[in-house]
Design goal:
about 25% strand; alpha+beta; 4-stranded antiparallel β-sheet; 4 helices; about 120 residues; 4 strands
């Protein structure tokens, strides 16, 4: 987890606008999906999900972290931990290492740890 903490501190220094906002929490992945889409983001649009062969895990960690998986067809599916942040009124997603994990359980462990750190 030290790698996550170092990455988080680096993100804080260089990208403070995209850090998870402790006040920005969602009740479920569906709630998160609905509000992000309503704000104008195309992240969860059927076309974007199809293009990236994306799937969203149904579990939400700490009201803000979630896991997606992507596959380009030639390579095995890999997993990404993501969160939502508010950038000037638009809800956008940010990842903690695109396709960083080979397993869903590894991605869920980081999402759970990140949620714990930001409680």
């Amino acid at each position: 987890m030290r790698e996550y903490v170092d990455n988080y501190e680096d993100r804080l220094q260089h990208y403070p606008y995209s850090l998870p906002d402790k006040a920005l929490k969602f009740d479920s992945v569906e709630d998160l999906r609905r509000k992000v889409t309503r704000s104008g983001s195309h992240f969860f649009s059927p076309g974007a999900m199809r293009f990236f062969s994306s799937r969203v895990s149904g579990e939400l960690f700490g009201g803000r972290f979630f896991v997606t998986s992507e596959s380009d067809g030639d390579n095995p599916r890999r997993y990404t931990v993501r969160y939502v942040y508010d950038y000037e009124g638009d809800l956008s997603t940010q990842d903690l290492g695109f396709q960083r994990f080979a397993t869903l359980s590894g991605a869920k462990a980081l999402a759970d740890r990140a949620a714990t750190i930001l409680q």
